[in-house]
Amino acid sequence: MFSSADVSEQPDVSSTPSTKSERTRALVRDIALRSFRERGYDATTIRLVATEAGMSVGATHYHFPSKHHLVQELYLDVQAAHRAAAEPLLEASDDLIERLGIVYRTGLDGLAPYHPFAPEFLSAAVSPRSPINPLSTESAPALAIVRGLFADAITGARTRLPVELEERLPDALTLAHLLLALFWVYDRSPGQVRSRRLVDRGLGLLKGALPLVRTPLLRKPVRDLLDLVAEVRA
Amino acid sequence: MFSSADVSEQPDVSSTPSTKSERTRALVRDIALRSFRERGYDATTIRLVATEAGMSVGATHYHFPSKHHLVQELYLDVQAAHRAAAEPLLEASDDLIERLGIVYRTGLDGLAPYHPFAPEFLSAAVSPRSPINPLSTESAPALAIVRGLFADAITGARTRLPVELEERLPDALTLAHLLLALFWVYDRSPGQVRSRRLVDRGLGLLKGALPLVRTPLLRKPVRDLLDLVAEVRA
User: What residue ranges does this record give for the DNA-binding region (chains A, B) (predicted)?
Assistant: First the structure.
């Protein structure tokens, strides 16, 4: 399993900066991301980032008009690292449950360094009015990476699901990922082992339930459950 | 169905104040609860409440050392009104699904007046470190009222559930209630009609699934699901 240290060693996915302006932007961004990881959300300020970059606050504002824009960079960075950690592992398995487990577990790995500051991130992001809410329009590109990972995990598995289920499962799994992240913020067990056990249990439940989804008995409850998820995601 | 106006007419459940100190406490409390309902969480301050009560800040501190203590009064007030709204309706039905619907729907009715301010309450309460977190020790008495309502809804229904399910269902339903409240904060539909539809769909799903819980096929998945909920609630 990839440790969080390994994840942070993944190459930066943003294009290599070429112009001076792009290099400045990358510098500010990298300093901000390290500050979020090391100081948390509350203690990271544009002023502090500017000072560490040896720039004026005005100059950083040109690239990032507010702290919220830096958080969106953080989301993209975390999810790009998530994808980079998950993809090589996904190549090694065609078992659906294993593949979903890879996506959830590498997701938790990538979040690990942020756990000490997770409550303050949550307070800042949880309001539906917050520009750093994970469900906001601004955060859509980062969330799309997670959804894409779940879609890939399903498409690349040898198990064939009923079309209706295959199409709607990625949204349900992404919602479960967000609820898992919420649980993880509350998880005070060493190494957040309870969050990992929750993944194991959830996947065990899915494994037991999947062979049943084609039975006439369960077709309607399963469709109802997917309707419920669609209602939540709408 | 009880409107939120009806709910607010329910008699106060705290004992009738007799001493001067008790009357002062009740006055401060009532002014604070009205302020939370009318101004929201952020704009309600101890100073403002003290002014409206014609008291010094120090005098209110004697009864309520912080704003958090007033929020706990609010939680108790909302849940006591929830119980008062649900109980007479529960007497009129012995159908399990209907009874659960009564608890969820009267819960949403009671929350309705707070919807404009719900995002700011959520931001303040969501951190696991927040003293007004609904899962905190301080908030346990209010949450116990909700759990008790679900337990009563089950015990008073004519449907007999397997013991294992009956014992563990109230926790699962209380967790669902908290997640419903989270969804409701995000619900921008008129009158939060989508939250009500979510209740309808969820109960429809439960209604379809309940006859199946005794089948050998589903006994294990159901137990796994309850284990998962127990893991989350622990």
Answer: 45-64
- Report the residue of chain A nearest B125, measured CA to CA: A123
| Mean pLDDT (whole number) for B4-33 | 71
For A12-26, A139-153, B4-18, B100-114, which range has the lowest pLDDT when averaged over its residues? B4-18
**Is residue B2, in this structure, part of any structural domain at all?**
no
pLDDT in tens, A111-142: 999 999 999 999 999 999 999 999 999 999 99
Inter-chain Cβ pairs, chain A and chain B, closer than 8 A: 84
Reported ipTM: the value is 0.86
* Boundary-marking domain end, from B50, B65, B80: B65
Q: What is the span of the domain harbouring residue A210?
A: 68-233
Quick one: B113 and B94 in the same domain?
yes
Residue B1: per-residue pLDDT: 27
Mean pLDDT over all residues of chain A? 89
CA distances from A36 to A68, A72, A108, A223, B135 (A): 12, 12, 17, 41, 27
Chain A residues whose CB is inside 8 A of the B201 CB are: 224, 227-228, 231
- Identify the CATH number of the domain in which residue A157 sits: 1.10.357.10
* pLDDT surpasses 50 at A43: yes
Q: Are residues B60 and B123 in the same domain?
A: no
Place of tokens 């906001």: A136
Same domain, B51 and B154: no
Do A198 and B231 lie within an 8 Å CB cutoff? Answer: yes
**In this structure, are B173 and B59 located in the same domain?**
no
**Which residue of chain B has the CA closest to A130?**
B119
Is residue A163 located within the same domain as residue A107? yes
Min Cα distance B17 → chain A (Å) is: 37
pTM of this prediction exceeds 0.95: no
- Asked which of A45-49, A63-67, A205-209, B109-113 is least confident by mean pLDDT, the reply is A205-209
Is B142 inside any structural domain?
yes
- Domain membership of residue B128 (yes or no) is yes
In total, how many domains does chain B have?
A: 2
pLDDT tens for B133-177 read 999 999 999 999 999 999 999 999 999 888 888 998 999 999 999
Nearest to A126 among B123, B224, B228 (CB): B123
Last residue of a domain, one of B27, B46, B65: B65
A2 assigned to some structural domain: no
